[in-house]
Design goal:
Radius of gyration: 23 Å
Distance between the termini: 61 Å
CATH topology of the largest domain: Ribosomal Protein L14
Number of strands: 9
Strand content: 25-35%
GO molecular function: large ribosomal subunit rRNA binding; structural constituent of ribosome
GO cellular component, one term: mitochondrial large ribosomal subunit
Protein name: Ribosomal protein L14
Mean pLDDT: 80
Pfam families: Ribosomal_L14
Family: Belongs to the universal ribosomal protein uL14 family.
Length: 163
Amino acid sequence: MAASFASRCSRVGRSLFSGLSNSSLGSAHEMTHNNYFSQQQRTFIQMRTVLKVVDNSGAKKVMCIQALKGKKGARLGDTIVASVKEAHPNGKVKKGKVVYGVVVRAAMQKGRCDGSEVRFDDNAVVLVDKQGQPIGTRVFGPVPHELRRKKHVKILTLAGHIA
């Protein structure tokens, strides 16, 4: 038993030291690998994009079926058609239902008139009915003030924090 433990330790030690001998190659590879992920391209919200639901309508995650504006996809403030993929058991919206949603957070950056850019870590949506009124009564997390220009003032009033 002690011999097998010693052989395992020596194998681990060799693998650690063999990695150190090529440290210059490894660090260059890690730098390009980390640089790639920090500057990865952020795209539109398009078909089959999974989004987080940030209201209390009962849905947790939805998958985009179609962006209702533009050929490429949806951005902040655009309306999408989505299918509910995960839902709370006692919510208003059930799994598999087709719903409308307004994109309130997008990982793709959007320029503002003052020259700054707004970008979020995740893609999030608030579920609305056909008239554009929110299904839920609360909106969680930050919401950009660009929604005011897109005529989604009701979502802004429900939001706790406007970015």
